[in-house]
Write a structure and sequence with these properties.
This protein is of the alpha/beta class. The chain has ten helices and 22 strands. The two termini are about 30 Å apart.
Length: about 450
């Protein structure tokens, strides 16, 4: 096992708790390996390395091969968003001497997992004068942290009767950001009492202005994400595991990017795609459901010379091969009844291939062709890379999706391939170090695939 690689991975997680932070890191990593912004390149030729980013939240890296783009590319596709809490547009309020930020949860979470745990605020505040303020509060030892409160067990009799999905309402996931001692006012001092209303909120607003240089109105054009405070840590006496936030799907994003940076291009152009919004259906301008990939490839084709019409783009995408680099649920011995053990992925078992995802009757699934799976298996065996074939869980238990079906619509071969994760979508997720290293080796090997 490559300990330096694992340390680099943990550092990537620590510094990339939002899609913006991940994209910034990927650009920095890529530029150190000779990649340039495609906007700065008028022409491209074999061997050139470029990237195309969208809104600072999605990015595609390309290393140009010697062959025709119409023969397709080898693509590694991951996502860099993770479940979290988002700050609402008018969030700041005071209630009975406690000041809160109103939030809206993002992605599939168990709401009860987000209470009474230290939380940090990451994101940007965009001001009307065009300036952008980067926010990261709660990660340094001297920083304050934030928290969502819960009911003490002594008064929770009614709460404990509710279903787990209901006993923490989404509207109650509001972040405590300040407080003040209660003030008692006499009835005949109404005017004075009114002037002291929301006193602590006003103090918080003043603090935000002094320390971070933004006003309450600027929340309207802010993108602030609430994430667990703290760093990735080794887990277990033997240090074989990693406990960290956001490993779905940054475990696959980091290893995919690093595999591309360390690869040597051949005839086929290599591409690594890291997208946003997968956890909420891949919608929006930065999600895989947009025209993000085809627009990026069109930029490449337009700089390659020769025929650059729409048919060239379509042929390129249809002839491409992709590993949809996304995590899979690791077999949980404490809840083994949820899994078909013969078709489950295990921590430390190597890269996990899912022929299909979706739920129950394969709804919303991308179902990989066996001919393509055979090619990938042959590559793994050739390079002595351990792998396992798996599903998410038992057929009727539920399921999940990836970006695979959105890539498959172009007609390309796609197979889901990722790291097994325990406690997926929890504030702190668990992976095996060997699987992280194996994923990197798998992705690097895949980039050698020939047409």
């Amino acid at each position: 096992m490559n300990e330096q690689f694992i340390n680099d991975y943990k550092m990537f997680l620590n510094n990339g708790k939002t899609e913006r932070e991940c994209t910034a890191q990927i650009i920095s990593m890529a530029e150190k390996h000779g990649y340039k912004d495609v906007a700065s390149c008028k022409t491209l030729k074999a061997g050139d390395k470029v990237y195309v980013q969208k809104m600072g939240k999605s990015i595609a890296l390309f290393e140009i091969g010697s062959g025709s783009l119409e023969d397709g590319m080898n693509i590694l596709g991951a996502h860099i968003d993770s479940p979290r809490l988002d700050v609402k547009q008018n969030p700041l309020y005071e209630k009975d001497f406690v000041v809160y930020l109103n939030t809206h949860y993002y992605g599939g979470i168990k709401k009860y997992q987000w209470v009474t745990t230290p939380l940090a605020i990451h994101g940007v505040v965009c001001k009307k004068d065009g300036s952008i303020i980067n926010i990261k509060i709660g990660e340094d030892a001297d920083d304050p942290v934030f928290c969502v409160s819960d009911i003490l067990p002594h008064l929770a009799q009614e709460q404990m009767k509710e279903k787990a999905s209901d006993f923490i309402p989404g509207e109650n996931l509001d972040l405590i950001v300040g407080s003040e001692p209660p003030q008692k006012e006499k009835d005949d001092e109404g005017a004075k009492a009114k002037s002291k209303k929301d006193k602590c909120k006003k103090e918080i607003i003043k603090l935000l202005k002094e320390k971070y240089n933004f006003d309450e109105d600027d929340f309207a054009s802010a993108e602030l994400e609430i994430v667990p405070a703290g760093h990735a840590r080794d887990l277990g006496f033997d240090r074989s595991l990693i406990l960290a936030y956001g490993q779905d799907d940054r475990a696959c994003a980091f290893t995919s990017v690093q595999a591309l940076l360390d690869s040597t291009v051949n005839a086929r152009t290599n591409c690594c795609l890291c997208v946003d919004k997968e956890e909420i259906g891949s919608y929006g301008a930065t999600g895989m459901g947009s025209h993000l990939l085809e627009n990026a490839v069109a930029e490449i084709i337009s700089r390659m010379g020769g025929n650059s019409n729409d048919l060239t783009l379509r042929r390129c995408l249809a002839s491409s091969a992709m590993l949809s680099s996304d995590v899979n649920a690791a077999f949980d011995p404490m809840n083994s009844n949820l899994y078909d053990k013969d078709n489950a992925s295990f921590l430390g078992g190597g890269i996990t291939f899912n022929k299909y995802t979706g739920s129950r009757g394969k709804y919303s699934a991308s179902d990989a062709n066996p001919e393509f799976i055979a090619k990938v298996r042959a590559l793994m065996d050739k390079n002595n890379i351990p792998f396992q074939m798996a599903e998410l869980g038992k057929v009727d238990q539920g399921g999940g999706g990836t970006i695979a079906h959105l890539a498959a619509k172009y007609g390309m071969d796609v197979l889901d391939a990722g790291v097994a994760v325990l406690s997926m979508h929890a504030p702190w997720e668990i992976t095996n170090k060997e699987d992280i290293c194996t994923a990197y080796e798998c992705y690097k090997s895949f980039l050698t695939l020939e047409k």
